[in-house]
Amino acid sequence: MADDGERIARAELTWLADPGDRRLGALVRSIGAAPAMTLIRTGRFPADARPDPAPADQRTMSRWRAALERVPSRGDVERALGGPPRLVHPGCAEWPDGMDGLGNAAPIALWAAGVADLRSSCRRSVAVAGARAATAYGSYVAAEFASSIAARGWTVVSGGAFGVDAAAHRGALGANRVTVAVLACGVDVAYPAGHVELLEAIAAQGVIVSEQSPGRTPSRLRFLARNRIIAALATGTLVVEAGERSGAMATARHARDLGRPLMAVPGPVTSDLSAGCHRIIQDWGGSLVTSAADVIGSLTEARTDPAG
Question: What is the DSSP secondary-structure string of 117-172?
Answer without folding.
Answer: -HHHHHSSEEEEEE-TT--HHHHHHHHHHHHHHHHTT-EEEE---TTHHHHHHHHH
